[in-house]
Specification:
Layout (H helix, E strand, L loop, with lengths): L4 E2 L2 E5 L6 H14 L7 E6 L5 H14 L3 E7 L2 H10 L4 E5 L8 E7 L8 H11 L17 E3 L2 H13 L8 E5 L9 H7 L3 E5 L17 H10 L4 E5 L6 E4 L5 E2 L1 H14 L7 E5 L4 H10 L2 E5 L3 H11 L3 E3 L5 E3 L8 H15 L3 H4 L8 E7 L3 H5 L2 H14 L4 E6 L5 E7 L3 H18 L1
Length: 444
């Protein structure tokens, strides 16, 4: 990770960590970088945060000042920007979003011409320009100055693409959608309505400050209650930019990213469509997933945390399904990044084609108790490398043995250390998480 760019772009509190000046400079550099041999075309989307509008203007000013043309998709999802970049011949895309973070944070995600996250060397070059380590770049003049173009049709094309993927009608299926007052608000209901579902939608009225506020994939209990109260067949919750999906089954139980990988992986395996007979997971995936995959005769790969690393493994090896427990699921036949709404459609396909409920499809997946707690720190590397934290990690790992595991890692997007313990009971998880956190607090 760089000084500004983490595992999911340049993210932080708007006008505190990430400022309008930063956004302008990102646009200035990328506009110049991609316009060396031709006039670059960039497409920009944003989520519903109040600050997304000012960042959209600042980025547009930077790009056009460097001679690039900017196409504005307005409020849309991250995966829709990825789709439009690679299908409509854009040089790159920008998504303005801080994903699942609170409304006062925001972020800049840069997507390359293949619809994937930008290469690390380009991120490093942007950082050097922001910090004044490279010569000032020229401003475009006369007719070389770029322009901005309304491109809301891009969002409509993406909606049409999603609808075209469905193999069956959703008629008579009662589906709940929690749009997190975010990007999915402009897309998800349209897709499910067009496919014939009886669509029940909550948290679909963004006001600039209510994105992710007690709703969406990070507050799944809201959708759980809604599914049970309305006797729905299934529910899907998205995060702020709709690149994540967490489901709720017909019994009101949570179906997280690991469960979705199991359900879709087994369905594709049984259909003979799981390329390489493997799925790609991260080190955060539940031990229960691996036991269930073993029982189903499905192999798996593990990467470090971050859908960026999952995607890299998938595309290098030709795998078609991978993702994270948090709900970033990649179906590489259709997309190059995590896509919450697409994930919903793939889960619906498994339900409809097998004529089974989601609760029945996941019945053989037994989750190991897992406890994850975050602790705010001033220096993530210092804490993780301290002798005391290393010692307690070794001690806990030894005591857990083959019946559990400890995972300590730094957040790629926030000043946090994540402490996760997986074991045979909730009590054991809590005991060891508390033990590690107590040592970290002493180090602070």
């Amino acid at each position: 990770m760089g000084k500004y760019f983490g595992t999911d772009g340049f993210r932080g509190e708007a006008n505190v960590v990430l400022t309008v000046d930063h956004a302008f400079k990102v646009g200035r550099f990328l506009g110049w970088y991609y316009s060396k041999n031709h006039r670059a075309k960039v497409v920009i989307g944003k989520d519903t945060r109040r600050s997304s509008y000012m960042f959209e203007d600042a980025l547009s000013a930077g790009f056009t000042a460097s001679g690039a043309d900017v196409y504005l998709m307005h409020v849309t999802t991250t995966p829709s920007v990825s789709y439009i970049v690679r299908t409509d011949g854009f040089d790159l895309g920008i998504m303005i979003s801080a994903s699942h973070n609170p409304f006062y944070d925001n972020g800049i995600k840069v997507i390359n011409g293949q619809g994937r996250k930008i290469e690390s060397e380009v991120e490093e070059a942007i950082e050097d320009y922001i910090d004044g380590k490279t010569p000032e770049i020229p401003l475009a003049t006369k007719d070389n100055i770029g322009r901005t173009v309304d491109y809301s049709m891009g969002r409509n094309r993406y909606i049409g693409f999603l609808i075209s993927l469905a193999t069956r009608s959703f008629k008579d299926k009662k589906v709940g959608l929690d749009c997190s007052n975010g990007s999915a608000s402009s897309i998800a209901k349209n897709v499910f309505d067009a496919l014939g579902a009886k669509t029940y939608v909550i948290n679909n009225e963004p006001d600039g400050t209510n994105i992710n506020n007690n709703c969406g994939s990070t507050h799944i209990e809201v959708l759980q209650k809604y599914v049970k109260d309305n006797n729905l067949d299934v529910g899907f919750a998205y995060d702020g930019d709709a690149d994540r999906c967490i489901a709720v089954d017909d019994n009101g139980e949570i179906v997280d990213g690991d469960s979705i990988i199991y359900v879709c992986g087994k369905y594709l395996h049984d259909q003979g469509r799981l390329t390489g007979n493997k799925v790609v997971t991260t080190v955060m995936s539940n031990m229960g997933l691996y036991k269930a995959l073993d029982a189903a005769g499905i192999g798996y790969e593990q990467t470090q945390v971050g859908d960026k690393y999952v995607a890299e493994n998938m595309f290098e090896n030709g795998y078609i399904l991978g993702g994270e427990q948090s709900g970033h699921i990649i179906f590489s036949k259709h997309a190059t990044t995590g896509d919450g709404i697409l994930t919903s459609l793939e889960v619906m396909e498994a339900i409809l084609e097998t004529k089974q409920s989601l609760s029945n499809l996941r019945k053989d997946f037994k989750i190991f108790p897992q406890l994850l707690e975050n602790i705010k720190v001033d220096d993530k590397d210092r804490i993780l490398n301290s002798p005391a934290v290393k010692a307690v990690s070794e001690e806990v790992t030894k005591e857990l043995g083959d019946n559990g595991r400890l995972l300590l890692r730094k957040s790629g997007t926030e000043p946090l250390i994540r402490v996760m313990v997986e074991a045979e009971s909730d009590e054991v998880c809590k005991k060891y998480v508390d033990k590690v956190i107590e040592v970290i607090r002493k180090e602070l």
